[in-house]
# Entry
Amino acid sequence: MGENKLQHEGGCLCGATRYTLHSEPTYSGNCHCRSCQRAIGAGMVTWVGVKPENFEVNRGEISYCETSPGVQRGFCGRCGTSLTYGGDDWTDIGITAASLDNPSIAKPESNVYLDHKQSWILIDESLRQYDQLP
Ligand SMILES: [Zn+2]
Ligand SMILES: [Zn+2]
# Structure
């Protein structure tokens, strides 16, 4: 039962940016908001949460863009992979679940911003559902 068991690594597609989560994710949820759709270029994005003190960038650096007032989206400045979401109102950093080396540990438990959901996205009705944020 070493500490390593709680550690999860991930990074961008080109390998220039690598990070480590020093804990299990605090949550995992699918966001259907229009901002995420456009930022990621997909119908939705699965975010996992991590406390800032448990998030470490091990290689390269994350580039940030303020995509809405008070919202910083982080990405690899070389290949553009979306990596993080941080907001003034958020205590946890959001990490794109798919950028984890092992995304299977990040099964989502909820869907948020279903108000913005695309008609061609199918919802697992067994997950918690929110029209906006809970
Ligand atoms: Zn990259
Ligand atoms: Zn979103």
Summary: Residues 34-40 form the longest helix (7 residues). Helices lie at 34-40. Residues 7-115 form a domain with the Metal Binding Protein, Guanine Nucleotide Exchange Factor; Chain A fold (CATH 2.170.150.70). The longest strand covers residues 62-68.
